[in-house]
Amino acid sequence: MKRQTWSSQLTYILTVAGATIGFGATWRFPYLVGEHGGGAYVLIFILAMILIGIPVILVENVIGRRAHCNSVDAFGGNVNNKPIPKVWKILGYMGIIGSFGIMAYYMVLGGWVISYIVNIFSNICGFSSDFNLSSPIGKEITSSFYEKNIEHAPLAIGIYTFIFVLINWFILRKGIIDGIEKSVKYLMPLLFLCLIAMVIRNLTLDGAIEGVKFYLTPNFSAITPQLFLYVLGQVFFALSLGFGVMITLSSHLNKEENLIKTASITSIVNTIIAVLAGFMIFPSLFSAGLQPDSGPSLVFKTLPIAFSQMHFGNFFAIVFFLLLIIAALTTSITIYQVVISVLQEKFKCSKNTAINLTLLTIFIFGNIPSILTYGPWSDIKIFGRNIFDAFDFISGNIFFVLTALGASLFVGWVLKDEAIKELDNGKDTPSKFATFWLWYVKFIIPLIILAIFIGGFVIKI
Hints:
CATH architecture: Orthogonal Bundle
CATH topology: Hydantoin permease
Distance between the termini: 42 Å
CATH class: Mainly Alpha
Order of helices and strands: HHHEEHHHHHHHHHHHHHH
Structural class: mainly alpha
Strand order of the largest sheet: 1-2
Number of domains: 1
Number of helices: 17
Radius of gyration: 22 Å
Helix content: over 70%
């Protein structure tokens, strides 16, 4: 059967943007900025997107479009009429393991967000008064709510997570084009509109300018070797590199698409969304007199305090959490598709069987353990971390880094001239950009990735 291709360059870019703009941009990026120097982090992040993000996206784009198949078999085939050693396919399987690890806790984060939406909406409708953001609240209330409704509510979070999984299931059953492409065409503009509305609202708050100053003014004393490691790790996380996502999505590109253009636009759009997320969050924090360095709990424990000090706080809180769930959804459906494509094409499963098997397996062996992390299984430790954090650390700091490193070596040392030809859309004479890119990928990128990997065991990215 002929492989489906994207209906247009725009829909592909929207889908890739959706895949990369998830909790990485709306949850992880803001709290890392808050912890690491404000404007200094933003400046280095933008530079890293240009110097690392675009070249590595091109690596996975070339691998995917060259093979026009799933993320495991994409590391096979022939080069110069010689078969590629099968050992390279290990990289594809590593990407699947990384995808499992990310989805194991990612879907549960979606369940957390749904819990906030349900509880805030219940207050608006008068069904509950536990979390009313129509008047100022303190950290004691947000912390108590988090403990009661997130950490110590495994059944409720299990139900909300399952609902989020069902939404993904419904979209995935429609396939790459009718499901993922058409959904993202509507979800991405909606995400952008919600984000712009929140930015405009928060920039008009009293004291918002102090948040903007913190966000945009680089504190050069904060620029250290450690900061570079945090930034580089975020670039990989934000662009979904090393999971097989870009390989899978680009395998549905036709041979006429300009890979350089699409990769550049993808990185630019991702950077813009991440930067806008900062304009949404920091003005509201400084307006409420809150500290920006509260870490991963920034969105769930600290930001609701800021919403409670706004007019129509409940309304804007719901808009914000809806924005989070939309961003998470556009990412989760594409990560699921990595595993589904392998089951369909390599193991000859039917589409529905592949979807059901993927979602059910991740729910049972990944989502449920993550949900139970803060309850009955709180004493279980893996590498000194609870189950939830272990999934994040192992997949994000080990598998995605090693997979991206292997992909760069594969392009630079195995595909070589064939990679240049793929990037140049089959031109006989290689372009100067493609020639430089291959050299950069062959020598420079592996050194940078190794630095991230080694540093990841010393500093949690």
